[in-house]
Recover the amino acids of this structure.
């Protein structure tokens, strides 16, 4: 056995500890930075993104969130339905949109701002369309479920076909089509087509997406209307083109999130699974989405919180 003087052992130990301090990940600092970024994007009410604001607002503002629950496949993989339809459903939270949950599940993940994805070396998810109220994609045609749907006897799906095809380009057009003319009937819910929005193709993706955002304010201003009141708490839906399976390290996942006890358990599980697959730490964030109170003077706002006790991975 090699014997070294105590002073040398002490020196080696201090060097090792210093090395660990240099390379250790400060997960609390990461979590705090992620929360600040989420809050900043949530509060950002940009009409468009890019140098000349020519890109839709979701490129730099708002929160794109996927509800996953706890299935029998990796949560970042498109579901069997999404593989068949060609589209993956997300929520879009922003401070000028009435916040809403979806279903009974209480967890999922959040994408980073899409405008940053390629800079970070991740794939750039392709947004196909946006519905101000739940798309009900299971009965819709078209790529990702962005087309019209068989909601009634409208066999040609004209009433629920993409808004632009019906001459609907503004929030006021949409509100009139759905609520004033048709009492909120689901058969008339149309979505805004955003396909190939980065190629500046016809269809005005940037302005129509902002008009889609404005619909929430119109609904709040008419919240005492019986039809509006019935749907004011219903989530919106953003459809993103289905990506390939088993590429967690290439997806721009910024956070796993939850509300409720079960959601916390599943979010912590997903965080650990993601770390095992990618060796990357992604924080678990608590999201509070308050219920809508139509008697309140203003709509509720969502909040985002990082808590060290929620982290199941401590690199």
């Amino acid at each position: 056995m090699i014997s070294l003087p105590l002073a040398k052992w002490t020196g080696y130990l201090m060097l090792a500890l210093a090395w660990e301090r240099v390379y250790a990940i400060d997960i609390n600092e990461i979590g705090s930075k992620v929360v600040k970024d989420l809050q900043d994007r949530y509060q950002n009410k940009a009409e468009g993104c890019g140098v000349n604001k020519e890109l839709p607002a979701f490129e730099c503002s708002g929160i794109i969130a996927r509800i996953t629950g706890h299935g029998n496949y990796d949560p970042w993989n498109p579901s069997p339905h999404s593989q068949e339809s060609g589209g993956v459903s997300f929520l879009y939270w922003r401070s000028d949109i009435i916040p809403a949950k979806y279903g009974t599940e209480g967890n999922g993940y959040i994408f980073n701002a899409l405008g940053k994805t390629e800079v970070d070396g991740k794939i750039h998810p392709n947004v196909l369309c946006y519905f101000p109220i739940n798309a009900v994609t299971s009965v819709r045609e078209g790529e990702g479920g962005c087309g019209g749907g068989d909601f009634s006897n409208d066999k040609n799906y004209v009433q629920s076909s993409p808004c632009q095809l019906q001459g609907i380009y503004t929030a006021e057009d949409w509100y009139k089509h759905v609520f004033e003319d048709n009492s909120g009937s689901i058969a008339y819910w149309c979505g805004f087509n955003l396909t190939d929005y980065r190629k500046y193709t016809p269809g005005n993706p940037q302005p129509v997406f902002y008009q889609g955002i404005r619909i929430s304010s119109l609904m709040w201003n008419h919240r005492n209307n019986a039809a509006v009141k019935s749907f004011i708490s219903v989530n919106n839906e953003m459809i993103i083109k289905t990506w390939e399976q088993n590429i967690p390290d290439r997806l721009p996942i910024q956070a796993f999130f939850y509300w409720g006890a079960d959601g916390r358990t599943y979010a912590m599980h997903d965080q650990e699974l993601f770390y095992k697959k990618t060796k990357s730490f992604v924080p678990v964030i608590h999201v509070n989405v308050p219920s809508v109170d139509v008697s309140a003077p203003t709509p509720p706002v969502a909040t985002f919180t990082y808590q060290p006790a929620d982290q199941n991975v401590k690199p």
About this structure: The helical segments are 6-23, 27-43, 80-85, 171-180, 205-221, 226-231, 261-278.
